[in-house]
Amino acid sequence: MSAISRSPNTPRTLQNFLDPQTGREHAGSAPTPGRDSATLKRLPPLVSVVLPVYDAQRYLRPAIESVLAQTYRHFELVLVDDGSTDASVAICEEYVRADPRVRLLRNRGNLGIVQTRNRAFAEADPASAYFAVFDSDDICLPDRLQMQVDFLEAHPDHAVVGGHTLVIGEDGGALGARRYPATYAEIVRVITRYSPIAQPTAMIRRTALEAVGAYREEFPRCHDYDLWLRMASQFKIANIDAFTLKYRISRTQGKRVHLRESLKLTIALQRQWMMHRAFFNPFNIAFWGAEHLLLLLPEPVVLGLFMRVTYRHGHAR
Q1: Is 207 left (phi over 0), alpha (psi -120 to 50) or beta?
Q2: pTM of the model
Q3: Among 52, 109, 128, 178, which one has the highest count of C-beta atoms within 10 angstroms of its own C-beta?
């Protein structure tokens, strides 16, 4: 998939302008030269927040509310329901009625996370410059979008930017934190050892996604890792050195439910990319060899090791 395929249901692009005298937003065609163009100016870049939904009623409201509470206001929230059987659709529809920035798309049946995320990309407003990836059980911190738009606007050579995460449990209580490598140079040193960007913190430049292609269905459990590897082979990627999201750990999380499959796909991706000249690191090759031993251990042991190594316990400073 070399480009984002657009659905005929994609909304027609509207150019939005802000009148500096009234502070009101106008939607319509671009201003004509002369008086109109002197009094109207383009709004900041539009961000499409893409949020897949599947039987997410327990945490869906706080997730949506955290997007609507962002300090950066020029965004749309694209909800894609993947055949939910609980009250998720009804909750989404409440927000669609209450806020014109919220849209709901519904899959015909349960298509899976990869197709659902890709549909959100394809049917987002074509005027959006950036995609903010998000999950229905997490919580965005208020400045997330603003910090990431500022970064990508200041670094046009970067395709993706993520951020650190505060780790919370099913009840919302703090469990710890996870920090990620910040610069591209730091990321390429570790990228064949682990995924360097937390998917629900990622903001992706539209033009870069169109260049490398969206998520691939052959990697259903680590489609984000596959995308970061492809992105980093052509563009710079980074993480803001700040916390951007509360990342929830739950018993139904894909990382827990499909742990062995995730590990096998991770090892396969690392084998594919470890000799890439931008990523080559002898230590990572040795680590990859040792990683195979995890496939011999019981899944609870592997999960416990992952949790112990990955998350720093206690409150983030």
Answers
A1: alpha
A2: 0.83
A3: 52
